[in-house]
Amino acid sequence: MPPLLRGPRRLLMALLVATSIAHTACAIGAGLLVGVLLRDAGRPAREVGVDVAVLLGALVGLGATKYVERVVAERLGQDYVQQIRRGLVEHAMTAASAPSLGITIARSTNDLASVRNWVSLGIAPLVALVPLVVGSVAALAVIAWPLALALAAPLGLLGLALARVSGPAFERARDLRRRRGALAARVADTVSAAPGIAAAGGVDRELRAIDRSGSRVVDAAVHRSRTAGLLGACAVVAPVAGSAGAAALGALGIVPVATVAVALTIIGIVTGPVGDAGRIVEYRQNHRAARRIIAPLLVETAETAAGPGPVAPAPLVDPGVSSGGRVVVRGLRVDGRELPGLVAEPGERILVRGASPAHAREVLAALAVPGRSGGGSLCVDGKDLAVTGPKTRRRRIGHAAAGARLERGPISRAVRYRRPDLPAEEGTSALAAVGLAERVAALPEGERTSLRRGGEPLTRHERARLHLARAMLGEPALLLLEHVDDDLGTQGRALLRRLLEDYPGVVIVASDRPQEILAQWRDWTVPTPAVTSRPPRSAPRASSPLPAP
After folding, report:
1. If we measure between CA atoms, which residue out of 70, 74, 72, 73 comes closest to residue 62?
2. Residue 468: which CATH number?
3. How confident is the model at residue 389 (pLDDT cuts 50, 70, 90)?
């Protein structure tokens, strides 16, 4: 996990510690002033008024420090969670095997909520609780040591009880988190497949499956609440026991009544923070359960961002060989297998052959982001894109794929997403080139219309055209088309054929109907990895009339 005390969070933690010390001082001062008031009973009203004024000042200090503590704690937790959220989203976008949408959402809500609760509602109250308890016990020890013992004994027993229950609380938090993740994944997959489920008459069946998953979440949540309830009960009883002990000392005459009043005031102030100790332990265990899931993902993201390490002393290809728009592929790997080498001149059309649609998607993904492939080089127009940054890569590669969803935002941003440095007029021209100018102009807000849910209000054919406009914007030296013709329709494929006739760069295509979009092409054979079949569980019976498979 990222370090908590980093950057501005150090100042926030220092402010939190200072506030906690000031809060402790106000609490002890308020308790002592109560004793002063009792001793000053019968004195002139002016002296009593001064005591009351000072006591009111201490009470205002108590409230002010508590307010500052809550605000600073929330700022500390939110700043920390913001850093982790960025890492999780980066992992979901860059990982070779991205998690499902439901799991990603669950991590961005439940897991991050656990982290935030621990930092804002766990660490911060703990920082405030330690000096308050230590200072209160020390103050009572100075006044009368039996009072300090009456408070310290139940608090010590509380600490032992919390330590004993924290282990089961952690295990139950992990179980609940697993079941919540499974439910989130099932809901996301079910909603995504809703049209097919409804067409097959399986709505009731899927709802029953969700009910079963939801029931497991309910049972796990109730099971966890037992430990949470025990933690809370122990935390509530301990300070009350301290108050009862102080009152008993006064009743037995061991401690003067005025001193008991001071002790009860101090213990009353301590009661609230100590009562939160059970929740602090619960937040801690929930955070530990979330950390087991989040931390490996953040480490993986950091390793990916750091790159593959030092560059090999002998590069596979001299990037200068690709000057002038030439494309050279050497040593790129997909599924652990090296792709065949390729050298393509500007204006050439390359058709990926021999690959299944799923494997073709992985091949073109390795070309679109060559740094993920773990070795090899893709040199385009004088640059090895496997070792360059995204700015250089996006200027030289355009990529459009079937079924790709569009990010949320206006159409004007979507069409120039690959090249935000280009003026808005270039985006308008790109929309016109793919036949979307009139359609976009007819929308209520034109190019400022916001796309949502993957590309609405555009249809599937129109989304494919928008992806095509974005990929071809600026005429990159390498254009990758991954079955995008499947989403274009008949008219769209005819339009794509006209656009590719005069396209100056190299075009690598994966398509089941290349003759409809290309006039001529050169094959690039990429063999599909062999799939090992699982043997049958049992041999067919000899008396079976069916032939053995």
Report:
1. 70
2. 3.40.50.300
3. confident
